[in-house]
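batch job 7 of whatever, protein = FAA hydrolase family protein
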Amino acid sequence: MTVSAPTLLFAPPPIRTVAVVGTEARFPVARIFCVGRNYVEHAKEMGAEVDREAPFYFLKDASAIVASGSALPYPAGTADYHHEIEFVVAIGAEAVAVDAKDAMDAVFGYALGLDMTRRDLQAVAKTKGRPWDLAKNFEQSAVITPIVPAVDFGRIADQRIELTVGETVRQMGRLSDMVWSVPELIAHLSHFYRLGPGDLIYTGTPSGVGAVRAGDRLTGTVPGLPTLEVTIVPAI
């Protein structure tokens, strides 16, 4: 029996992909999981406490992905646009209800990212007990560098994560400062979602988040990963 392809009313959205270091093949993005308050000092600067019982998350659509090196237009609906530098984990194999000791088997590689945030909208959402979607999940809000395969990056330890705006260091921490480690995050998420190839986990941001404006140049670094660079440009 032959099944014909359905007729679509309009073209489907393009598949979002990320470059991979050392190959022309690209990583197709499925889902973007972002970890909230995974650095103690960042939680403090947001006037919150870390939940020691379990990590928590918010999601971004794949359409939020934008490559390092891009010019980011100042987004609509905000007057307080913030940077959050993050270590990113790229999932390359299925992980369903796994233990932390087995979680790293699902990792394809690592990248450096920015969780760009409309902070004023987030503040309103917090005050009213509403979801954070307007503040977090919008076009070009998930910056990412090319992915380095896990075998080439090596072990996650106390690597320094840093963001500068212009010549000023805004954020600086260590990957070892994360409250919930990468294996713990993967294991925890895998009990609520069927993690699989194409999923990305933005693992949280160190303290020092702050506002940017048109003309600012942002540079992020973690040893062993490509340098992240974006420029903020005026709203379109």
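notes: The first helix runs from residue 40 to 45.
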